[in-house]
Amino acid sequence: MPELRIEGLRKSFGDNTVLHDLSLTVEDGQITTLLGPSGCGKSTTLWSIAGLHRPDEGRIVFGDRTVYDGDRVNLPPERRNCGVVFQSYAVWPHMTVFDNVAYPLRLRKVKQAKRRERVQEVLELVELASHAHRYPHQLSGGQQQRVALARALAHPPDMLLLDEPFSNLDAKLRDRSRDWLRALQQRVGVTTVFVTHDQDEALSMSDRVVVMEGGVIRQIGTPVEVYENPADLFVADFVGTANILDGTVVEADGVTAKVRLAGLADPLVVPRTSRRLGRVHVTIRPEAAHIQRDGRTSGSNVVTAKVETSSYLGDHYRYVLRVGESLLTVTTTRPVDSPELTVRLDPEDLRLFEPESDDQKETTHE
Question: What is the pLDDT of residues 313-330, one digit of tens each?
Answer without folding.
Answer: 999 999 999 999 999 999
